[in-house]
Amino acid sequence: MDLQLSIPKGVGGDDGPGTNPEQLFATGYAACFHSALKAVARGKKADVTDSAVSVTIDLIRDDDGAIGLGARIEAQIPGLERATAQELLEAAHAMCPYSRATKGNIPAEVVLVDND
């Protein structure tokens, strides 16, 4: 992988045209979470063919000025009842290696969006 990296202005960078480490982390997290969602769905015989997952990683400063991360995982699972879709998301969050690795280390919010 050959990428141009840029650092966000909020942490002293130039906000240049390249990607940043947080975007790369978000991409890997989204792919991993989506794989976990598909695995959970297969086990429950639920159709998630048209599902999509995106992850946003935010930089968060604590009271001491140290920078940490926060994650927002958004998933669309059309064609399923909201309760079923939510159950799949919770199971995927429990299974996903990225979610497991960051559990208790960064705040993570899992959101079901546009499930109509």
TrEMBL record:
Region (Disordered), start-end ranges: 1-20
Secretion signal, residue range per the UniProt entry: none
Membrane-spanning residues: none
SUPFAM superfamilies recorded: OsmC-like
Superkingdom of the source species: Bacteria
Record-linked InterPro entries: KH_dom-like_a/b (IPR015946), OHR (IPR019953), OsmC/Ohr_fam (IPR003718), OsmC/Ohrsf (IPR036102)
GO BP terms in the entry: response to oxidative stress
Alphabetical list of Pfam families matching this protein: OsmC (PF02566)
Similarity section: Belongs to the OsmC/Ohr family.
Protein name, as recorded: Organic hydroperoxide resistance protein (Partial)
